[in-house]
Amino acid sequence: xxxxxxxxxxxxxKIVLELAKILSVSNKGVAIEPKEVAKPASKAKEEGTYDPKxxxxxxxxxxxxxxxxxxxxxxxxxx
Length: 79
Description:
Blueprint: H1 11-26, H2 43-47, H3 52-64, H4 75-78
């Protein structure tokens, strides 16, 4: 048995995956078994990236003052 890793987001990966699906239907020797790749947990999320005093200060300012949110997806249009 051979394991092949395919990046499903690329054009070539999509073509190879589609070909494998077609072969798995017509041939009994080909089987597709999807496998989830575990992503390593980030230490920054566990420990907290920011100082708790800083987070409290920002939350207080958001609650008490007017502010202008800047959307990062369209940053140049927001400015």
